[in-house]
Amino acid sequence: MKILVLGSGAREHAIILALRSEEEAHVLLAAPGNAGIAQDATIVEVDPFDGPAIAAFANEHAVDLVVIGPEAPLVAGVADAVRERGIPVFGPGKAAAQLEGSKTFAKRIMDAAGVPTGRAVRASSRAEAEAAFDELGAPYVVKADGLAAGKGVIVTDDRTAALAHAEQYLPSGSVLVEEFLTGPEVSLFFLSDGDTVRPLSPAQDFKRAFDGDAGPNTGGMGAYSPLPWLAEQFGSAEAFVDEVTRTVAMPVVQRLDAEGTPFIGLLYAGLILTPAGIRVIEFNARFGDPETQVVLPRLVTPLSALLLAASVGTLEDQPQPVFSDEVAVTVVLASEGYPEAPQTGRLIEGLAEAASVEGVRIVHAATAGPDAPGGSLIATGGRVLNVVATGSDFADARARAYEAIGRISLDGSHYRRDIAARVAE
Ligand code: AMP
Ligand code: GLY
């Protein structure tokens, strides 16, 4: 197949690596990509936000499938423009992408579909936010309604901080004040063709910047898959996945279909396992980052077949995706100052040495260059690289990941040392 992948992060690089690892050789195109993606796909000039231009490009170059990686173009309606031209595209249209783009929309769909989630009150003013705090009590959970690049949520006992967070987002719309939920979090992805869903394997990410879940929230500092502890709680991981399929994914996909806005793409269920049962904390309308980097290396079923089937409405004909028994761990290398004020433009050394560790692949998040043949790459953002390691168990995969990341040098960079430490014990 000829496949165009849109986006420039580690998630898109991981998708491209999974497509490349298939027995069938594909022609892989990417835009805008990054320095790592450029090693594994051909970079092409097309604006990921320009739906008509993407459709024209796909027609002209006989592209069989367009995969839209990030949420912003999805919420902007890029998939609609491509799908209207009859081109298979993996990614929901503007209406269904509201599941991620608007927390109010997501709550309405969950209510209508009977999906378990935290109680939430919408506030459009300071007074309404105060009333919601009184009603729901501390700790306070306040969520910006729209896309906020991972910065929209605050969870705090400090009422003044909660109010300040609400006031930051109120001028641009409403906020949701939500019931505080507690328990381990799980990310579970579903491929959907608008009607049928196919679950992938559960993963967990590490959102805080520093070891021991200290420091500010980030886009994600690491992840691992599968989650062995699910079996203790649910009898088996399969039982957990079945329950989420039945109580979360299917009702949401059916509801969106009934509203005439089918969800075609990746439904990301962000779940919290509370003492009272599974609750949805958020939906995303695309693959999670960095969870994708640990889920896809374990996928045995060819990814291209699944993405195409979801895009053209034939997922029902696809068997359940199969995963290997190997485990995967990813550790994110971040620039100095990330997340508040990342220092960029610095040289990255040691990538080849890191990649030579058995079971390790280097997935690029924000890299550019080299300026000269054989030269070094530079870091262009906060999260720079993901070191992904597979292994027979978590001790093995962690040892490989940390051996590899130790071989990379980037001035001032930092990474967490405790990714998947608990499951390795
Ligand atoms: P979100 O951007 O919705 O994924 O929220 C970011 C993080 O905030 C989640 O991963 C949780 O750790 C936390 N969070 C969100 N909603 C709640 C809630 N209702 N109760 C407790 N923590 C929450
Ligand atoms: N890992 C969180 C996200 O992709 O939104």
Question: Would you mind describing this structure in some detail?
Answer:
With 425 residues, the chain is α+β, with helices and mostly antiparallel strands. It has helices at residues 10-20, 37-40, 51-60, 71-75, 78-83, 94-101, 103-113, 126-136, 159-169, 230-234, 237-258, 291-295, 303-312, 351-355, 394-405, 421-424; strands at residues 2-7, 27-32, 42-43, 65-68, 89-90, 120-123, 140-144, 153-156, 175-178, 185-193, 197-199, 204-205, 208-210, 214-217, 222-225, 264-274, 277-284, 327-334, 347-349, 360-364, 367-368, 377-379, 383-391, 409-410. The chain has a 5-stranded parallel beta sheet with strand order 3-2-1-4-5. It is globular. The chain binds adenosine monophosphate and glycine (GLY). Adenosine monophosphate binds at residues 118, 141, 153, 155, 178-181, 185, 207, 270, 281-282. Pathway: Purine metabolism; IMP biosynthesis via de novo pathway; N(1)-(5-phospho-D-ribosyl)glycinamide from 5-phospho-alpha-D-ribose 1-diphosphate: step 2/2. Residues 107-312 form the ATP-grasp domain. Its cofactor is Mn(2+); Mg(2+). GO terms for molecular function: phosphoribosylamine-glycine ligase activity.
